[in-house]
Design brief:
Transcription Regulator spoIIAA; 37% helix; 17 strands; Rossmann fold; alpha/beta; six-stranded mixed beta sheet; four-stranded parallel beta sheet; 20 helices
Length: 592
């Protein structure tokens, strides 16, 4: 591996790109708290890529954490890269402007490592598009010794086979410590003059959380087989054991363009005590770990002083399960309420603790409260292992209205096993009852927005063996909900439905095998990109790509798996299969 010269294209970007795009602030860099090192003087240069636009990527805490950690290492530089929107891409392709970083406006292809954080299956084509914009071959087998090493982490790594043709390395699990170990191994390999393949082989041997696809193949039974002696065929997620002292960015970057979330963001707990059987994160992000109140408050103070954001968000998969929440909120209010800085408490569970929370949190912005109910009937909540009673739900919402909350946003999922038409219609009935609870407090019905999504069976969950319901089922469910709303003449409840085509694609991709590499590439070459956006998503690109591979999109989405056969993701880090099967079988009696 050689130490390449870094090509700066700052003048080209300034003169030939920025004047011709609608939001130049997405591409100029130079924000408050940006870290810009002298690239030529650094041994390792890493480009941290988030495969979506600036506003989304700047709201993703994971990028901020890795950025802070890597730039804190002497001799290592990390710079950010986001997906250019359609207008910018058109200019870049027309004028041969390569993909560049935010900090130095340096060509991404000149970096040593390019790390992608993939949080959703519908970002896969953006990964290929970014590689192509950088001037790199999308398939790893076609890239050269001088090309950067492509690393993929995030959710995609735990079901990596649909991207195995494009990445050099997958990093499973949590990145804080894993990223440092990989960078240091790369630095050592570079100093010793080792080749890219030698580095990848050493990483595959040394780290149980690293998967290097080129060293593996699948046998006829679907089991992973190593091509090189001594390599593992089962992997484990990287886990940060000392979460209390895990790095927290002291000076987050303040974006120039308004991001989706502009706030101080502190992760207070990692993992979730619950075991919702549809939720990948609750099974994969184990064990549950918490930070102390003092550590959280001090980190929030540092970030506020460095950014001036007027909201502090306390993040976790289930914030109300944080064991010291009362003490934490009291401490946060003591310091931040006089500064008129509000608290944001997402991911609240419906339980006794939530009944007390609105009264306790005096500085939370109280326009609306979001609750993930998931299923409207207690029977279905038993199926999905979310033991919420209607009594607790009504008590929690009443307490919220009494504390001054005005509106509710509810999340429901349709498509659970054992679901009936009555269960679906109960979504409307429950929403009506919750709206009426406010009338008992101040004489007015509450405005409710109910978001309806379609169940996507996920790898590494008890429902991962089950096929997704078909399109007709979801279309009928939508009509049942809207008909029930008309029947009840609800004026205060609005239903928003997730696009069915996207859910079908997500189901097909999220539990796929290596055959889907061809599908992803064909879809991208057909024009697929920004599939999470209505401006970009076209289902025909994917239908044609599946067809070209001899597959059917909806058949793949509805595919079920036998519990006694290998799964396309069995070898990747995740929960023990035996534990998942126990949950799977426990859910079956409730369906009888």
């Amino acid at each position: 591996m050689i130490h390449k010269e870094i090509q700066s294209i700052k003048d080209v970007v300034s003169r030939q790109l920025l004047p011709f795009v609608r939001k130049p602030g997405r591409y100029i860099g130079g924000e408050i708290n940006q870290v810009k090192k002298e690239l030529h003087g650094c041994e390792v240069r890493a480009a941290l890529c988030f495969p979506d636009i600036y506003e989304i990527g700047m709201s993703y805490l994971g990028i901020q954490v890795l950025y802070s950690i890597l730039n804190g290492i002497d001799g290592v530089a990390a710079e950010r890269v986001f997906a250019p929107w359609f207008d910018a891409e058109e200019v870049m392709r027309a004028k041969n402007i390569p993909l560049f970083t935010m900090e130095s406006h340096a060509a991404v292809a000149d970096f040593d490592l390019i790390g992608f954080s993939l949080t959703n299956e519908l970002c896969y084509t953006n990964l290929l598009n970014l590689l192509d914009l950088a001037g790199l071959e999308v398939r790893s087998e076609n890239r050269t010794e001088d090309d950067p090493i492509i690393i993929v982490g995030g959710q995609a790594a735990n079901c990596a086979e649909p991207l195995s043709a494009f990445a050099d390395m997958f990093v499973l699990g949590e990145g804080e410590e894993a990223a440092v170990e990989i960078v240091e191994l790369y630095r050592q390999a570079k100093q010793e003059g080792k080749s890219k393949k030698e580095f990848l082989l050493e990483a595959a041997r040394r780290f149980s959380f690293v998967y290097v696809p080129q060293f593996y193949e699948l046998d006829d039974a679907g089991l992973l087989k190593a091509k090189v002696d001594g390599l593992p065929t089962e992997f484990k997620n990287a886990v940060v054991r000392d979460f209390e002292n895990a790095p927290i960015p002291e000076k987050p970057i303040v974006p120039f363009v308004q991001a989706i979330h502009e706030r101080v963001s502190i992760e207070i707990m990692r993992g979730c005590p619950g075991r919702c059987r549809f939720c990948q994160a609750s099974f994969c992000r184990r064990p549950v770990r918490v930070r102390s109140v003092d550590r959280i408050v001090e980190a929030a103070k540092q970030q506020y002083a460095a950014t001036g954001f007027n909201t502090v968000s306390l993040l976790s998969l289930s914030t109300s399960d944080y064991p010291y929440l009362d003490e934490l909120v009291e401490a946060m209010n003591t310091h931040f309420a006089p500064l008129r800085v509000g608290l944001s408490l997402p991911s609240l569970r419906v339980q006794k603790q939530l009944q007390l929370l609105p009264k306790m949190v005096t500085s939370v912005r109280k326009g609306g409260l979001t609750i993930a109910v998931e299923a409207a009937s207690e029977h279905l909540r038993q199926v999905i292992n979310k033991p919420i009673t209607d009594e607790d739900l009504f008590a929690a919402v009443t307490a919220a209205f009494e504390a001054g909350f005005l509106r509710l946003k509810l999340y429901f999922i349709v498509g659970f096993p054992g679901e009936t038409e009555e269960d679906i219609q109960k979504i409307v009935d429950l929403s009506q009852k919750l709206s009426a609870l406010r009338k008992e407090v101040d004489g007015r019905f509450a405005d409710i927005t109910a978001a309806i999504s379609w169940l996507v069976p996920k790898a590494h969950t008890p429902f991962g063996w089950l096929g997704q319901k078909d399109r007709a089922y979801f279309e009928n469910a939508k009509e049942l909900i809207l008909s029930r709303k008309r029947e009840l003449k609800l004026r205060f409840v609005k239903f928003n439905f997730h696009e069915c085509d996207r859910s079908i694609l997500e189901s097909a991709m999220g539990r796929g095998d290596r055959r889907l590499c061809d599908v992803v590439e064909t879809a991208w070459r057909n024009g697929a990109k920004f599939d999470l956006w209505s401006e970009g998503f076209e289902i025909k690109h994917w239908q044609n790509a599946f067809s070209a591979a001899g597959l059917n999109l909806e058949t793949e989405a509805q595919k079920s798996f036998s519990p006694d056969k290998p799964l396309p993701w069995s070898h990747f880090g995740g929960p023990d299969t035996g534990g998942l099967l126990k949950h799977y079988h426990q859910s079956m009696p409730t369906l009888a």
